[in-house]
Design brief:
Helix content: 55-70%
Oligomer: single chain
Order of helices and strands: HHEEEEHEEHEHEHEEEHEEHEHHHHH
Largest sheet: 6 strands, mixed, barrel
Strand order of the largest sheet: 5-6-11-8-10-9
Distance between the termini: 33 Å
Number of strands: 14
Structural class: alpha+beta
């Protein structure tokens, strides 16, 4: 321990004696460690933000889209074929024991008019269970009811973004009349803000009206029973896989899909969305890690070069130390500690730079960032590792000098 403490004091003295050179030597380490801190904070912030947005979609939720990724050898995206119906949604709720609730939806772009103000948005025709499945509480008023659906009532529930764009702050909204496709609709509720979804769309830029009203008033034809999407809530989180299996079997049976044929629907769970998001952020983190590793390697090479120069400059000092009794191990520890000290100081400065950069990015770009203690500890250990790895060769070279030759060095 005495050897290490003595070596540490000598290392600090050497750093202070050549401040500018030491700072320039540590620059690569500072940038590398700072990059690691920023990388972790942005990655974790993005992951937490996406996870929150996914959780906001609902609890124990499954999403069923018409169409599938492949049909009859031809690939097609979700919603490209009208294969789901209202009867499918009702059958799922009635015949699948693992399912608690189901809802259905049809959509169309609409223009909502309030006096001289109008706003283009997405108009959804939904069933009453939609808000409960999506875990989307009402801010004021009420959501659609079974009676509204049955009577095809001319009522509408506004997303918060639509309400903000159609009405003045503090203005009474509930009970007001707005026009959609020249039909008057009475506003019965405003939903709480949900923010943007994982794909970046504003979830609050929507209006909801009864499914029956949507079909009769906005689409302009009798109720065909076709829906674009079915939302399902399972009895519990543990029963989500079972609910998915039951729904697949039921829909294949109802749609008369033979064994070996592709589904004409697609079922997605929130876990699948969460896993996809985790893979995306993991890939980005891996790329940033590679960039940070290159910077740290450059910084380590810089430390090794300076340490080699230092060994050459202090050859006589090494010879004198060995002449008065210093062992090979003492010299090795002295230069190794000096290299590690330089790396640790660079790591600490890099940590400060990384935290400051993360705060700056969060403030200016409004990106969510999360700085955790484990990322700081990891960065510190990494900087120590760089110091040991790149400082070992110069230290070994110094420790193996011939004392006589070292004393003769001019």
């Amino acid at each position: 321990m005495d050897i290490i403490l003595t070596a540490f004091r000598l290392a600090v003295r050497a750093l202070l004696a050549y401040k500018v050179r030491s700072l320039l030597t540590m620059l690569g380490i500072i940038i590398g460690i700072g990059s690691v801190i920023v990388m972790f904070s942005i990655g974790r912030g993005a992951n937490a933000s996406i996870q929150k947005q996914i959780n906001d979609l609902g609890t124990n939720m499954l999403m069923i889209f018409s169409g599938s990724s492949k049909k009859g050898g031809v690939r097609a995206g979700w919603g490209t074929m009208p294969s789901l119906t209202v009867k499918d949604a009702l059958a799922i709720e009635r015949e699948c024991p693992a399912v608690r609730l189901s809802s259905y939806l049809i959509s169309r772009n609409v223009q909502v008019v309030n006096g001289k103000t109008n706003w283009g948005t997405k108009g959804y025709g939904v069933s009453p269970n939609f808000a409960e499945i999506r875990a989307w509480p009402i801010q004021e008023g009420q959501f659609l009811t079974a009676q509204h659906l049955k009577s095809a009532a001319s009522v509408v529930v506004l997303g918060s973004s639509v309400a903000e764009n159609l009405f003045q702050p503090g203005e009474e909204i509930i009970g007001r009349k707005v026009r959609i496709k020249n039909f008057p609709f009475r506003v019965i509720g405003v939903l709480i803000p949900k923010g943007r979804n994982p794909s970046g769309q504003d979830q609050d830029d929507v209006v909801f009206i009864p499914y029956t009203t949507h079909v009769r008033r906005l689409i302009g034809r009798r109720l065909p029973g076709i829906v674009h999407y079915i939302g399902v809530s399972a009895q519990s989180q543990e029963l989500v896989p079972e609910a998915k299996r039951e729904i697949e079997e039921l829909l294949r049976q109802r749609h008369r899909i033979l064994p070996g044929q592709d589904d004409d629907f697609t079922i997605r769970t929130l876990d699948e969305f969460s896993n996809m998001a985790a893979k995306t952020t993991g890939t980005m983190t891996l790329l940033l890690t590679a960039v940070a590793a290159v910077s740290l390697a450059v910084g380590g090479i810089g430390i090794m070069n300076i340490m080699l120069v230092s060994v050459t400059e202090r050859t006589r000092e090494i010879g004198i130390r060995m002449a008065v009794g210093a062992r090979e191990r003492d010299v090795l520890v002295q230069f190794l500690v000096e290299s590690v000290t330089m790396s640790i100081v660079g790591g600490l400065l890099g940590t400060i730079l990384g935290i400051a950069s993360s705060k700056l990015i969060s403030g200016l770009a409004e990106w969510p960032t999360i700085i955790t203690m484990d990322s700081i500890l990891l960065a510190t250990l990494f900087s120590m590792g760089v110091g040991v790895f790149f400082g070992f060769y110069p230290a070994r070279k110094a420790s193996r000098m011939d004392p006589i030759e070292a004393l003769r060095y001019e």
